[in-house]
Amino acid sequence: MGEKMRIGIAGYGNLGKGVEYAISQQPDMELVGIFTRRDPSTLHPIGEKVTVYPLADADQYVHDIDVMILCGGSRADLPEQGPALAKLFTTVDSFDTHAKIPDYFAALDEAASAAGTTAVLSVGWDPGLFSVNRLYGESVLADGATYTFWGKGLSQGHSDAVRRIPGVQNAVQYTIPSEDAMAKVRAGEQPELTTSEKHTRECYVVLEADADAAVVEETICTMPDYFADYSTTVNFISEKELQEKHSAMPHGGFVIRSGKTGENTNQVMEYSLKLDSNPEFTSSVLTAYARAAHKLSVSGQHGAKTVFDIAPGLLSPKDPAELRKELL
Amino acid sequence: MGEKMRIGIAGYGNLGKGVEYAISQQPDMELVGIFTRRDPSTLHPIGEKVTVYPLADADQYVHDIDVMILCGGSRADLPEQGPALAKLFTTVDSFDTHAKIPDYFAALDEAASAAGTTAVLSVGWDPGLFSVNRLYGESVLADGATYTFWGKGLSQGHSDAVRRIPGVQNAVQYTIPSEDAMAKVRAGEQPELTTSEKHTRECYVVLEADADAAVVEETICTMPDYFADYSTTVNFISEKELQEKHSAMPHGGFVIRSGKTGENTNQVMEYSLKLDSNPEFTSSVLTAYARAAHKLSVSGQHGAKTVFDIAPGLLSPKDPAELRKELL
To answer: Where would I find the Meso-diaminopimelate D-dehydrogenase C-terminal domain in this sequence (chains A, B) (predicted)?
Structure first.
């Protein structure tokens, strides 16, 4: 193996920590440092020897870093940091606001093309690996239907919505794919299904001392957009049980393509993820795509790229002949 | 949509018929003709207006065909036809003799590079989509183990082996993935499993009039390599039942990557196919990759390519902006 790929991490929440772990598992990568908007002395990286730099000084390290992995959030951080950092570095990010992807792509493409860098956006599992499977599915089975189911997984947005209800001290919400709906899809029935027909919702709620459980349950189950259209179950538990049993961030889901070939033959392609940690998995995907971003950049393929533009072989530390021999 | 991609089919068995069907489902492709070593007048394509040409005359049609899809067998046909046709056309094939892929790749690469064509080899589901999933799996979850299970599916080789036993009039054999083994893998246990621990075998046998069922069953279950190491069940049925219930060619299987991230977090990625017709599905994969082969060829990326070298977006008739908007 030649020189190691030099990686920087921008942002150090759950995603940044996951990337720090993931880099340590990759044989051909080394972590140059973590960049943060916070006071660097307040950060405590997992690796004892890892250096923390002010994000504002990132431009001083353009010659020390091959790929900067952006670990900020899609709402406030990435729309600004993405194009700014793509002017300095080849980047990878997990931008996941579906409706804004075309605008974000355009901003990154302009910045990266002008700077001669490569900016890989919207990497993770959805968008990301799920997107790739939607694409393989509809390309191969041209006559068919694609279904994405999410869960079982912790939904941060829905958990927050429950926590805002008066009388609720703490809460988590799990999105659960409907077994009935999945069975129909797997049987090749190609049903028409709304998001609420594909999923049920399960809440674990800690009440405040004087709260009325019946009122809280009613408020949850009738909440427009979030719960009203769904089959929802509400479980009341203690803060202790919530901390012990519901502190992890599991997630996952299914992409199923059901199609017909020949006269009328059923064919089903299914992809699924069962993740005990949603952020750590997303970080692992980001890190594998950092390798692809570096290879693209070195070979002069600059500008914004998505998972659709990236040949699978670029994700691996193995060379093409090894891949053909071992994995094909 | 611009001009349609012009496709030729070389070889007209189950795979060639499947490709003929698959082309009719793709909005941007048209079938120019079928090329055969048999007497063209003896072939009856599904499409009434489809022309059949002698394969020996293929060189007269180099300007009429964008991609030739090779539907011959891996043992006798492709090693010879692949390089010969890659000198004339951009090609796609389903070469699946794993051990001989490096040599076949080299022969195709030499022919295609010299001719300025693109030769995409070993396309289908295994090798093919399963290979891609093995690659995504180990690239993302660097610390883990990959498992491929095949079935439930009809195995031609094992069916033939049973048919050769004295006293057997007809037979089919299904390979079935072991539920126990899959459960362990899905639970993140990362067990070490041999092929025989991952699968069981199920035979449906029609006896000749004077045959001894006990002897036939014993002969099957103790057959070295094919059955001796497996848990095998043998069912005796009538020729009528065999024709009615066991004439289809279903197949499928699972690629599961189980890995650890962070401190010790389990993550499981699973890909599966449930195919009512193995050859029709392989044909559909070949046809989608024909589109990619054409795009690569037009953009000057010549030589031999595998599924690892091909960005997913190239498989789709949609343009990159559409893909980002609809599928990312």
So the answer is: 124-277
Phi-psi region of A305 (alpha: psi -120 to 50; beta: other; left: phi over 0): beta
d(CA B328, CA B323): 7
pLDDT, tens digit, for every residue of A117-145?
999 999 999 999 999 999 999 999 999 99
Is the CB of residue B311 less than 8 Å away from at least one CB of chain A? yes
A199-207 sheet: strands from edge to edge: A153-154, A168-177, A199-207, A231-236
pLDDT grade for A2, boundaries at 50, 70 and 90: low
> Cβ neighbours of residue A224 under 8 Å, at least 6 residues apart?
none
| pLDDT 10s digits, B155-204 | 988 999 999 999 999 999 999 999 999 999 999 999 999 989 999 999 99
Tell me if B309 and A320 make a contact (CB, 8 A cut-off): yes
* Amino acid making up residue B243: Q
Tokens representing residue B28 in the block = 């941007």
- Asked if B272 and A270 count as a contact pair (C-beta separation under 8 A), the reply is yes
Q: How far apart are CA B25 and CA B65, in angstroms?
A: 19
A68 residue type, one letter: M
Distance (Å) from the C-alpha of residue B24 to the closest C-alpha of chain A?
10
The tokens for A192 are 């028409």
Best probe of the A interface among B140, B185, B272, by most A CBs < 10 A, is B140
The yes-or-no verdict on residue B2 having pLDDT over 80 is: no
C-beta neighbour count of A219 within 10 angstroms: 17
* pLDDT above 90 for B58: yes
Residue B38 at interface with chain A, using a CB cutoff of 8 Å: no
Cβ-based contacts of A267 with chain B (< 8 Å): 273-277, 280-281, 284
Nearest CA to A130 among B254, B124, B291, B136? B136
Tokens encoding A245: 């049993």
Location of structure tokens 């199609």:
A259
Looking at the predicted structure, is the pLDDT value of residue B1 above 60? no
State the CB neighbour count (10 A cutoff) for residue A207. Answer: 18
Do A25 and A48 meet the contact criterion of CB atoms below 8 Å apart? no
Per-residue pLDDT for B71 more than 70?
yes
Judge whether B7 is closer than 8 Å to chain A, CB to CB.
no
Q: How many C-beta neighbours within 10 Å does residue A135 have?
A: 26
CA geometry: angle at B123 spanning B122 and B127, to 5°? Answer: 65
Query: For residue A81, what pLDDT band results from cuts at 50, 70 and 90?
Result: very high
